[in-house]
Amino acid sequence: MIVTLHQPHLLPWLGYLERMLHADLFIVLDHVQFERRGYQNRTRILCDGEARWFTVPVVQRSREERILEKCIDNAASGNDRWWGPKHYKTLCYAYREAGHFDRYAPRLRDILETPQARLLDLNLLALEFLRDAFDIRTPLAMSSEIGAGGRKSELLLNLCREVGATVFLGGLGGSRHYLDVEAFERAGIEVRWQNFRHPEYEQRGAACFCAGLSSIDMLANCGPRSRDALRNAGFASSDSARAASAELCAA
Prior knowledge:
Helix content: 25-40%
Mean pLDDT: 90
Shape: globular
Largest sheet: 6 strands, mixed
Order of helices and strands: EHEEEHHHEHHEHHEHHEH
Number of helices: 11
Oligomer: single chain
Radius of gyration: 19 Å
Structural class: alpha/beta
């Protein structure tokens, strides 16, 4: 069983979904520390030809808060006006010329204009929208419900053990630098690395292609064709994880 995992992101980019697509189980890392200035409460959209941040305001309490504890600041706009309708209008403006945005607008409006107390609940609703739009059926599990302990590589290994993984599919980010591949191999779990090639497509209003945006960008510009484009965007590398790690460190 191929298992991959990641923190819940707000309307994540295509690479996030592509890795989920290639797994038999995706674990949502909801019990780890919230990262300020990360992608858990923000994403990037194309607006007036530029990549701009699309951010959900959150309540700042302690730096030790876990993601599942993080609350949305629904009073951020003041005067009894909250951020949701304004953010939806921002999306409508940003993708007003995209040929397929109207197809997805009603669902996005429901997600953004329905108040949620926790950031996690908003992110999961947004993720389900993207999973439906891209026809991704990979089951989800919450790390907080699995109950594994440890930090960094040890935590990932313990989560994989608890769910019966035979293969761990690592992403493009930090885990490549700290994952203890040999510990996984000793546990009988093969490590593979995602090999994602970002698809290029016509972006309305962009002078040149801008990669790494929210997956909404592809949906708005490509519509139902996005499903096949995502499936052709990459593959799980069958190369040795140890060799890949060595190449990365040598670069």
